[in-house]
Each structure stands twice: as structure tokens, then as C-alpha cells.
Amino acid sequence: MARQEKPQPTIFTIFGAAGDLAWRKLIPALYDLFMDGWLPDKFSILGMGHLHTTKTKYLNQLRKGVDQYSRLGETKKDDWKKFVSHLDVVEAELGQKKAYQELSDRLDQIEGKWSEKAERVFYLAMPPSMIGPISEGLGKAKLNRQRERARIVVEKPFGSDLASARKLNRLLGKIFEENQVFRIDHFLGRETVQNILAFRLANTMFEPIWNQHYIDHVQINVPEQLGVEHRGHYYEKAGALRDMIQNHLLQILCLVAMEAPITFDDNEVRNKKVDVLHAIRSIPHDQVHEFAVRGQYGGGWLEGEHAQGYRQEPNVDPESLTETYAAVKLFVDNWRWQGVPFYLRTGKRLAKRITEVSIQFRPVPHQTFPPRALQGRQPNRLIIAIQPEEGILLRFESKQPGPSLHLAPVMMQFFYKEAFHTKPVAPYETLLLDIMRGDATLFMRADQAEAAWQVIQPILDVWGEQRPTDFPNYQAGSWGPEEAEVLIARDGRTWAMPTILQCQEDLATCRVHSVDES
């Protein structure tokens, strides 16, 4: 995180402060920012809602969350005491008008004590159904009036389809100005995701070849090993297409495909992202099966342990038709990307957990070397690894040592932890600090959220009309349904293996070539 000015005095109100999101993500992130000296000297965290326990027990529970999820490790007594002195709770029934008046009075009291106005952040760590009531409550209490200092933060999912996203945007738009609304996607807070633009636009060697003339196709792969676990209630209403592709993967696609902004102004950057989404080719309803594949995991084996099928997970319908896997092929119809397919896939209970962007380049226009020198040759590939390792890798061809001419793929690698000797900050740390500063670069604008839904709406419509008859159609521990392999094989391509596995294969190939040569 580049050193910048600290935010102005800030009051950070968390609606749902006793929930899982606050416990695992928000409070640990705020604690880490505090310990690293990023928070202003005058700041306050207010937990808004029901604690269902005493304040002392609540604070002890928060500390356990910080001990478990902070990147700095377990808290020390004095450090926690300093941090918690900035934290208070407002017990309130969020459906009642007086709750928001009590909040308003508390904010005024804090500002009076500080003798200056503060940035006011209202973070909705709540189910989507509460966005409307809380927003209206804030509006009626006139907590939206300070346009330059009052901000509302909304977690995903932002709607469940295009119509609901538009409705939600209209509701928020009646109460808040667009510059006050921060639609958060934690994926965009990852160091490597942010580094996509730096890699592209700060290095002259890559941007000239970042187009249809040199790139064959792009893959965005986000396989997950975990099942739905305790999220069955939520996942049954969402599925892989809504939960991952509509927001996370499409946002990464925008960073890969967008044009260079004139400046790094937040609206200028977001304008370029919206341009990408508007340029994505609409999928005709009768051709959805050629552009999208869905799947659901059954029982199987994952790293030596048996994993139950999705329909056997807690809070899941035994006859559920919810997809736990989705693969989509998209085209960005503009001068830069015309004809270049973007393949996006994600799924639960797959063989490995990894998030990578794989950019495969076209073959050289004329092959100079004899066929015997090219055994095992692989296309040049640029890999942006987002998790669990964060870094960038470039695969290219090199001559193997020896008296004969043989080419083999090698990897040029950069990893954050090796290059900078530090652990990347958690995504929420970056995003929370940006919210306090009022920097919306990494957050979705209203038109961007709707454009993302518009991309996948034809798939949602068709999948809603046509019931799958083959679920479950892939085993836990596999790489997904066979139909996904057909989706990409139909174009003469294959899914990229995760970086670590690919490196192992490359090394094995090199050893085989050396043995053959000798």
C-alpha cells in the first residue's frame, strides 16, 4: 500500500457489527490499519444493532476474531486496549425511526468532542433485504445531507438480476448522491488485481502487444476447493454465476480489457470499465448453450478425504438445481479485442483453489526452427496469479543447454513476498481506507453494476427456463463437468492448468527432452 495522507477524522458505523463479516473481515482490517498507523488520530468505530450479549463479551468476541484473522497475528493487551478505546456500540432496533435519531445524536456528540466535522461512513454488513430499510432510515434522520462527508457502503450481492439491481440503484439514488455510494467487491482490493493496471500501463514492453494482433485468448480461472459449507441458505438463491462471475470475474475482465484512462481519477477509470462491459457481445437466448455451461458437484474425493455432494450440504434442497460451477465464453467487440475470446470459469469443490488470469499469445507468424527442435513447444503465456500466491509469471521458449537445438518452455517469475519481503495487506484494508478517503476508483458505480448484470442476464433467463436434467454432473475433486471441456475444446483450446501444476509439468517436459537428447 503506497504511503499517502491519512484520512480526515472519521466515524465508521457498522450496521450488523455482531455479524460474521464484521468479526472476520471488517474489525481485523480496521485493527491492522490502526496498528500500521493508517487511521487518523481522531476516529471512532460504532457498532449499530443488537449485540445479543453484554458489551464486555462482545468486545472479547471481537478480539478473538482479530486474533484469528489479523495479518499481524494475535493481539497484545496494550495494543488491543488502545484500539478498543475507539470502539463503541449503539444498541438499537434498526426498523425503528428512533434508532437513526440516536445514531445522529451520537455522531454529533463525537464531532462536538473533537471540535471538528468528521467523515461519516455507514457500512451495511447486513443481508441485502436490509439495504432499503437502513438507507431510508438514514435519509429520514437526514444523515445523508452532508454530501461530501457521508458515505454508505453496500456489500454484494447487489441485486439478484438486472431488474433488482436497477430497483436498488433507484432506491439508493433517491437518498444518496452517486458519489456517496460505495458498492464493495473485496476482489478488487487484492494487490495483484490492482497491479494489473500498473503492469499494463507502467511498462512500455507490454501495452503495444495487448491486443487482438498478439493475444489469442484470455482465461480467468477461479476454482475453489471448498464447498458451500454454512452458506447454503445464501448459495441456494445465488449460484456460481451470480456469486462469482457477475461481480468478481467480470471486474477482473474489465481491468484486463479496458483502455488506458487519461488520468487515474476514479470516474475516469470507472468510465473505461463501463466501456468494456457495454462492448461485451450480447448472447442470443437460443445460443446460450454455446457460450455457457453450468454444473453441480456430487460426492467425490478431495486430497484423500471424501467430500459430500452439494445436495447433501446443510441448508440445501435435496433436489436443488442451483449451479455450483459456471463457465462462460465472452467477446469484447471493439478495435482492441475483436475476435479474442475471454473464457471465465469458477466452481466449488474443484481440484485446486487458485485465482489466475491466463493470457495466451498467438504463435509466431513463421516458424524458423526445424520440427525436431520444437517437440513439447508451448504457446507464450502471461499468468497473473491472484491467490493463494500473488505474482506474475511469463512463459516463453528457450534453448535447452546442450550441443543440439531443442527449445523448451521456461518461466520468468515475480512473487510479492519474494520481491518486497512483506505480506500483502488484506483486501478490506485497502478498500476501507479508500472509503474513508472518498476514493471510489475500486468501487462499482451504478451504471457499472447494471452493465455487469446485463452481460449475464440472457444466461440467467435461459437457465431459469430450462431445468438441468443431469445434476450433479461432476465429482468433488475434479475440474468440473465434461461440457466445460467441450466449450473450450470446440474452439481448439484447453483450460489452463494452475500455475504450480503447470510449472511442474514444464520441468518434467524439460527433463524428458534432456533424456531424449542424450
Structure notes:
With 518 residues, the protein is an alpha/beta fold. It has 2 domains: 10-155, Rossmann fold (3-Layer(aba) Sandwich); 188-514, Dihydrodipicolinate Reductase, domain 2 (2-Layer Sandwich). 38% of the residues lie in helices and 19% in strands. It contains 15 helices and 18 strands. The strands form 4 sheets. It has an 8-stranded mixed beta sheet with strand order 8-12-13-7-14-15-16-17, sandwiched between helices. A 6-stranded parallel beta sheet has the order 3-2-1-4-5-6, sandwiched between helices. It has a two-stranded parallel ribbon with strand order 9-18.
Uncertain segments are 507-518
* CATH H-tier superfamily of the largest domain: Dihydrodipicolinate Reductase, domain 2
**Whole-number radius of gyration?**
25 Å
Main sheet strand line-up: 8-12-13-7-14-15-16-17
CATH-defined architecture of the largest domain: 2-Layer Sandwich
Overall CATH class of the largest domain: Alpha Beta
Task: State the end-to-end CA separation.
Answer: 50 Å
Q: How many beta-strand elements?
A: 18
Q: Helical segment tally?
A: 15
Tell me roughly what share of residues is in helical segments: 25-40%
Structural class: alpha/beta
* Integer average pLDDT: 88
Question: Percent of residues in beta strands?
Answer: 15-25%
The major pleated sheet works out as:
8 strands, mixed
> What's the number of domains?
2
